[in-house]
Amino acid sequence: MINWNNLDTLKSYEEMKNAKKVNLAQVMTGENGAKRVREYSVPMAAGLTYNYAAKEVDDALLATFEELAKEAQLTEKFEALYNGEVINTGEKRLVLHHLTRGQLGDAVNADGVDKRAFYVEQQNKITEFANKVHNGEITNAAGEKFTTVVQIGIGGSDLGPRAMYLALENWAKKNNTFKMEAKFISNVDPDDAAAVLNSIDVAHSIFVLVSKSGTTLETLTNESFVKDALKNAGLDASKHMIAVTSETSPLAKSDDYLAAFFMDDYIGGRFSSTSAVGGAVLSLAFGPEVFAQFLDGAAKQDALAKNTKLTENPSMLDAIIGVYERNVLGYPSTAVLPYSQALSRFPAHLQQLDMESNGKSVNRDGGEINYVTGPVIFGEPGTNGQHSFYQLLHQGTDVTPLQFIGYKNSQMGTDVVIQGSTSQQKLCANVAAQIVAFACGKADDDRNKNFEGGRPSSIIIGEQVTPASLGALLAHFENKVMFQGFLWNVNSFDQEGVQLGKVLAKKVLAHETDGALKEFSDLLNI
Amino acid sequence: MINWNNLDTLKSYEEMKNAKKVNLAQVMTGENGAKRVREYSVPMAAGLTYNYAAKEVDDALLATFEELAKEAQLTEKFEALYNGEVINTGEKRLVLHHLTRGQLGDAVNADGVDKRAFYVEQQNKITEFANKVHNGEITNAAGEKFTTVVQIGIGGSDLGPRAMYLALENWAKKNNTFKMEAKFISNVDPDDAAAVLNSIDVAHSIFVLVSKSGTTLETLTNESFVKDALKNAGLDASKHMIAVTSETSPLAKSDDYLAAFFMDDYIGGRFSSTSAVGGAVLSLAFGPEVFAQFLDGAAKQDALAKNTKLTENPSMLDAIIGVYERNVLGYPSTAVLPYSQALSRFPAHLQQLDMESNGKSVNRDGGEINYVTGPVIFGEPGTNGQHSFYQLLHQGTDVTPLQFIGYKNSQMGTDVVIQGSTSQQKLCANVAAQIVAFACGKADDDRNKNFEGGRPSSIIIGEQVTPASLGALLAHFENKVMFQGFLWNVNSFDQEGVQLGKVLAKKVLAHETDGALKEFSDLLNI
Fold first, then answer.
1. How far apart are CA B364 and CA B384, in angstroms?
2. Tens of pLDDT along A149-178?
3. What angle do CA A377, A383, A385 make, to 5 degrees?
4. Of B66, B356, B380, B478, catalytic
5. CATH topology (fold) of A117-295
6. Distance from the CA of A486 to the CA of which of A55, A169, B46, B189 falls in 20 to 30 A?
7. Where are the domains of chain B?
8. What is the ipTM of this complex?
9. Cβ(A197)–Cβ(A235) under 8 Å?
10. What is the average pLDDT across A459-469?
């Protein structure tokens, strides 16, 4: 029996609030700090490790966190989710993105089929299609191979796949699995599509139209944009486009596409990178085998999220630490700081994943909540960020918890020794240094040069950004966000907050406005 | 006589705190809302308009803001700055970035020269150099024209110039002023330089090394990386590189560069886009005439910042509204949301500009302050963001003030009509709709579909992203940040908060660590 209770009704939450706070600068100093680094460390999948030594926690707090995990029934709720209960209460839908990469529990039947089999079938169809494109069985009208794949999608159909593509592009080139360059068109700003189209050879490009409903205005508009360009080049658009959509969408059976691959209503856009939404573009760009490794990394990380012992479940632990920071310590935002250029757009994807999932003000039953939920998420790669916004992170008046990500090895292996160290060593030295600088600070009589410390961070450390470790990283954050949604008792899988803007934009375009909206429309020449 | 007092010692700040709050949803509804849109509007330079109708202000509050501007002596402080007083108290330096684009007040003499003349001279030298590159007087060793320019720099030597390049790339292509493609290498992650070098033809590339001190570790490391690549291609590196640095730096007189152009200690990195730091790469990419238009837009906007009447001084008004939101209303972060794909990296630049300038915990004299200073700044272009983090902005538990930016026209002019409107119209309709959706909300009995409204935003509206309007936009935010620094009584022009990390990273590389730092270094294989 699962109880869906608000966070502030839980006894262990009260205990957590009343527990003794940790003086981070103090506990991270000297041998005790070294001990924490050794002990506050959890293995993740694909060679990753989650280290939370520099978080404001200690054994006593971790014990209350474990109590909270139990009282909030996080494991049971996760189990209900992957076994096919209606966890998306707002839209009354199952939540099945885990099934796109593995089977965590019982067979889930919906729409008259086994859903794991359905997702596998779709990926098999993509594999077959991608192989035919790569080996020249599927070509353009002139019989020439396609060289570029262009994803047309927005939000979850753009940010995740784009971040994953950028993360693996150089790895694939280095490892000889790079098949085709990928580009992305998302914004309804006509300059977005125009610039991408100007940068490619349309005659050798294959376009992936991604829209679950088949009705996303931005995406359909950009499809028309692309079709015009293909037509102007004397090409048959239907020989250059595939669709990723739901079986019930208007795109599913259309002759306008070379092929259609399916997702369904149980895969939220921001959780869709491991479905056909990411599968088509990434399989075309890097080969289906690479995408399979990515799925495997995610599946292995998902399996860890089933662990009932909190300190062996990195996503659950990360989730509770985040709730403690947000609801007890009162920190309003979180920065994601990957020390890897490959992950340059990973923070933008997490921004959607986290803020769209848990930026909610009512509970999963539409009832009141009396505490804050999802924080603002932002970030840029290090060391770049160090020369940008880290000033505020170190010496600003608010504390911002930090999520570092670092890898021992670069992807391309080309490096240079300057002042006795490689660039990769400098990169790693910087992330290590930052953790300690934020945690411990450094006293200085010149208050302008004084660092108070006490600024918490965790770090995920890996060998290299590979398909498998990227899958594990992605799944970790998806599961963290899910557990936080359980803790806050919100529905992390709908997004009603985006609707009002859509409705009003339609009114503007129909010239059915008055008051301020009419004035703004006039100012913008609509 | 200027008094540098902390914000909370000002009488008008107390008045502002005690003033009646505005019910935004209420005042923005009906004819009153329309009236606000018409009246709460200030012209900026280059055809831009700052509209603050959807901010939580009214005439009474604006009157207290005007009092605050006077009591805080914002105009006098700006005057002192552009007339050459030591405003950067920490580093004991003048603050002269305005002089790179115009002369606002008295001649400023420093280092034995007239500084306006110095900056103009540098830009003239860049103009001459760029023209020679464009007309083939300066070529590679084989006598072939350079086709690509690569900026090597980090932080202020990267984010601003990169954002400006991306903002004008398609405009320049459309308007036949596009001269050379620009690329940027910044991160010490070796994959950054390696990927850029793999994507260009080094034999036809000219590299711009940008480091004020000539000692920035990331930049010197990447220079070596590039020199290796040139050498491996059998090329003479000194015939492919120019430097932008200070006259006193080790790079200034080196034979390693084709030419050197100078900035100085009075131009902070994050304020350097209008100096040689932006001038070299942007003049090479788009032609010096385009860069001149950009400077002109910035200069015209700077002139407006001298206006003593608050409602005719958009940067000062924006600054005080921001302080009101941060210190009185308690909002912790601000989102920058340009409805223009061209401005895709403009928020990342503002993130540095704002957070590095005002993320401070001591006042300009090193004394205590007892109020919050700079907020977290983040953002992505619309409409993309609507499908990402807007859920939290609309329905999250915290209020995030929003800075919209929108343009009537696209840059490239290619468009498509779908459902009776162009993409550009859809883009504009969306930004208009969002302002009203955030301000007014919409009641719904289903609490999950309820929008409380009361979420404040302002919008800057322009005709098009052009060199001049981009310069004006940039200068607006630079001046806003400056005025906010004056209000908070912090030094917005140093960045001591970045030092500790640098020191500790050096220790890691020298293996002079113990405790937690040694453990983290071991985990990262350093």
1. 39
2. 999 999 999 999 999 999 999 999 999 999
3. 40
4. B356
5. Rossmann fold (3.40.50)
6. A55
7. 106-291, 495-526
8. 0.98
9. no
10. 98
